[in-house]
Amino acid sequence: MKFRRLLINIFLWLTLIGNGAQAGSERSLPETINFDLSNGKIVVVYQMLNDDTASEQYADWAYYLNEFAESNTPQYQFYAADAALNDRLAENNLAITDSYTLFLKKHEASFYYQGVLVESPTYLAIKTYYAGEELTPMHHAFMPEEVTINLD
Amino acid sequence: MNDSLPLRRGDSDRKKIWGGKKQTTAPAYSVKKLQADLKTLGVYTDRIDGDFGKISEKSLKIFQWVLANSSNAIKNRSLVKHTPVPNLYASGRLDPVTFTNIQDWLKKKLTAGGDLVRVDTASLSNISLGPGFKHIGKPQVKKPDLVISRDALGMVKLMNDSAAKLGLTIVINQGLRLNKARVSGAVVPPATKSQHLIGHAIDCNIVDGNSWNNSRDFKNDRQTAGAEKFIARMKKASHRWGGDFSRVDTPHFDKQLDSNSFSYDAKFYLNQNQIASGAPIEVQTITD
């Protein structure tokens, strides 16, 4: 009987701990991004409102984004934009469009690609920039617009 | 083969349904035998269960499509040619012509192959692979190779010829794309249909002097006259340019194969399988 009570107590304790952890992880997207940035991550935020997944545009966009994510996670973290984040970005005077890709790193420049990103050299340029390597003329040609973002 | 029992979808060895009807005696050529043969021919990958369902039907259609439309086959891991069978419709039913050809291919130890070719881009005067070009990491593909469908060879040749004439360099970012179900690390669902998946598309930048003619240049109408002339030449030869799509995709050129057609489905299966199975891919030289 004592053993059974002990098991129940352990279960309740674990449940409480679990709930506490869950409550702690319920951050808004801007908070999550800030957390990642503070931990030295580079954050990529994307918004794509083209739901025509049969289009070549969607195919190219999804392919290059996935390729970049597959080979650069966990150093890079990827998030789909939500309303809360878009509100915060608008407060930073960013002209939010239907589709965009935003690259963020703490204490570094942020870059905003307006429209659907279908060019792999842009990802290469961003990676080269954040790695602190020298940019070639090609990298410069594909760098997105530099913007100042503060999500604090 | 019992000609009165042309196997079709819905047939089942277990239920003794052959040729669309319940039978008392089993035919010499059962559904299981057909499935096993299609597997040997490289067009069936599912279980050999004796039930002629959707997958068996599609596999049979792919083999019939290969018989009628392709001259490629594989023997002992080498590419060989076969003579296409005229007027054969990819019905998905086992007709006598298809049956005869199945037996003929098995006897000759042939398997179905795709139409992918490798182009050594180092041999092209005005085409190069971009620094972000992702090589197909398969043993049968070498580093400077651009892998495309044989049907898109003319498009690559025209790209090279036009670039040479206009003093441009075409920097390719991708040709054939491997089909990936959503894999670990992917953040968005991949497209299930694209001309890239059959080797009919090229993503590239038209480099004209210092201009890369990227998407932003086209969006802001800053593309060079050379790029416009290049695009006009490609379109004149009936190639599609992504800048004309309602969902604009300026780096994209393709030789479209209707993605709703069975030809697309057959080519998708055969070309993706050609890569995945490690089957050989012929080198093609593009000459002036």
Summarize the structure in words:
The complex is a heterodimer of chains A (152) and B (288). Chain A is an alpha+beta fold. Chain A has a single domain, classed as 3-Layer(aba) Sandwich (Glutaredoxin), CATH 3.40.30. Chain A has a 5-stranded mixed beta sheet, with helices on one face. Chain A is globular and about 35 Å long. With 288 residues, chain B is α+β, with helices and mostly antiparallel strands. In chain B, 30% of the residues lie in helices and 17% in strands. Chain B is built from 7 helices and 13 strands. Chain B has a 5-stranded mixed beta sheet. The longest helix of chain B has 16 residues. The mean pLDDT of chain B is 93.
SSE order and pairing:
The complex is a heterodimer of chains A (152) and B (288).
Chain A: H1 2-25, H2 29-38, E1 42-47, H3 56-72, E2 76-80, H4 83-91, E3 100-105, E4 110-114, H5 120-130, H6 137-142, E5 145-147
Parallel strand pairs in A: 1-2
Antiparallel strand pairs in A: 1-3, 3-4, 4-5
Chain B: E1 17-18, E2 21-22, H1 31-40, H2 54-69, E3 72-75, E4 78-81, H3 96-108, E5 111-112, E6 116-120, E7 127-129, E8 145-149, H4 153-166, E9 169-174, E10 201-207, H5 215-219, H6 225-236, E11 240-241, E12 252-254, H7 262-276, E13 282-284
Parallel strand pairs in B: 6-13, 7-9
Antiparallel strand pairs in B: 1-2, 3-4, 3-5, 6-8, 9-10, 10-12, 11-12
Helix pairs in contact in B: 2-7, 4-6
